[in-house]
Design brief:
Number of strands: 0
Structural class: mainly alpha
Shape: elongated
């Protein structure tokens, strides 16, 4: 019978792999559909909505929303972002990039908080801490680009999603290695 910590670690590993796979699929769709405005709008709404759902499920698996306040707040922030993207799309691509920038900052800081909390229980969270910090920095960059002269496209968001995929994948692999080492010890 697996211990609670081992079960949670297995969940976290699967969760990180799932997040990475979704992000990679989103990037592929964004590249393939970049010229089709209605479909890219859908992708732009889906990404923060997916983040809200993923944080909700992860928080529930790990003790509920009350026990995971940073993730609970991330669910709210990501849901509001999905709605804000719908509004921003009718304004301009500059507004969409600004919304994504604000969201990247907020969700990055909340991810950083969740990773620091998890460090004590599961280890291997340094990647998620780095990811959260980089997300906040990327948000600032997106906001600065939203003020530029060149009209942004969905392809301006794909590097952000790509780094997220990389960090989730690296975290999952790190947990696989840690589990292997623990089993061998």
């Amino acid at each position: 019978m697996q211990s609670q910590s081992s079960t949670q670690s297995n969940w976290l590993r699967s969760y990180y792999f799932g997040r990475a796979i979704f992000s990679i699929a989103w990037i592929a769709a964004a590249i393939l559909l970049s010229g089709q405005s209605h479909l890219t709008v859908l992708l732009l709404v889906i990404y923060p909505a997916w983040d809200a759902l993923a944080n909700l499920v992860d928080a529930r698996v790990n003790g509920g929303l009350k026990a995971n306040s940073s993730q609970a707040l991330n669910v709210v922030v990501s849901t509001i972002t999905a709605l804000a993207v719908i509004v921003a799309v009718s304004n301009s691509t500059y507004a969409v990039l600004a919304v994504f920038g604000v969201w990247a900052i907020l969700s990055g800081l909340l991810q950083l908080s969740a990773a620091v909390r998890r460090w004590r229980h599961y280890g291997a969270q340094w990647v998620m801490i780095l990811s959260g910090a980089q997300s906040a920095l990327a948000g600032g960059f997106m906001i600065s680009r939203s003020l530029g002269a060149v009209a942004p496209t969905i392809l301006d968001i794909t590097p952000y999603v790509g780094f997220g995929a990389f960090y989730f994948l690296l975290s999952a692999i790190w947990l696989v290695v840690a589990a292997y080492r623990n089993a061998a010890a």
